[in-house]
Design a protein that fits this description.
The chain has 99 residues and is an alpha/beta fold. It has a single domain, classed as Nucleotidyltransferase, domain 5 (2-Layer Sandwich), CATH 3.30.420. It contains 2 helices and 7 strands. The strands form 2 sheets. The protein has a 5-stranded mixed beta sheet, with helices on one face. The longest helix is centred in the last third of the chain and has 13 residues. It is globular and about 40 Å long. 25% of the residues are buried.
Length: 99
């Protein structure tokens, strides 16, 4: 289960993962290219507006948690939406894999 999304996802592995102490906003990206923020499913066109609303009057970080079968182009769209909302602190969620 990915925190903040309420959705089970099969994250890709990474040898260079780092534990994030606190992620203010998690954007889930499902295989069917839907985005989930705070348990709410939204379209790609709504993502930037939603993030702008969530960051009002505070500095936030975003973690993009995409299923490993999500196309790279969809993850890049999510990252573009995050940056379009004026959020520069963004990372991609992964599980630690063997080295």
């Amino acid at each position: 289960m990915i925190a903040g999304t309420g959705v089970d996802m099969n994250l890709p592995g990474s040898k260079t993962t780092e534990e994030i102490k606190e992620a203010t906003i998690t954007v889930g990206v499902k295989k069917d290219n839907q985005f989930i923020v705070n348990g709410q499913t939204i379209s790609s066109s709504e993502l930037t507006t939603k993030l702008m609303d969530l960051k009002k009057n505070r500095k936030v970080a975003v973690i993009i948690a995409g299923d490993k079968d999500v196309p790279l182009s969809t993850l890049i769209d999510a990252m573009d939406s995050v940056r379009g909302a004026g959020i520069n602190s963004v990372g991609i969620a992964a599980i630690a894999s063997g080295q």
